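With this grant's support, we have settled on a layout for protein records. One resulting record is reproduced below.
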Amino acid sequence: ISDGNKQQEFSTFWRERLFDAPHHITYGTVRGFYGTNSQDQTAYFSPSSHYSAELNLSHDWVTWREYERSFKQHFEAGVGLYKQADYSAKPTYSLQYQHQWQLSRTWQLNYGIGWQYHPYDGHDEQHTYGIFGFEGRFLMNNLLSKMLGCALISTLLPLQFAYAQIEKDLPKNHTVSLTFHDVRDDVLKEGDRDIY
């Protein structure tokens, strides 16, 4: 179902490593965004045009590590400028803090909290949100990977319908995701080789 509103969005970013030391790494990111909507008299947020620019700093600190297990703290802060048609430009702010547990080579748990300050239709709004993620990677050879891939295709069809039902019942601005990754043969044989 479409209401005829044509939305166009363009975004770009540049990410640079600013600091790198054992157990510590810092990145700086510059982001730009521009969007338009053919209809602005809608029941949802749909400005005729809006754009933003943001500078973001993030830092990862590997607080503890033992073989394939580790505990990492993630800090993030951002500041920017947002301009919406018919309203003056206003600043934006964001903060985020996460714990990331590498439980084994194949399983990872992360959780955290974030805060955002952003203007909409000329009104400054802020909200606090929670973050939770659980990631698993299956170690498998190519034949088993193909077999499981075929099985997953048949399994995902009913799951997509179930996900749509879950998404409908969730509170506004809440999402649920579950991610799985295959592991390359060289990683399986030699293990991960990261900068830490």
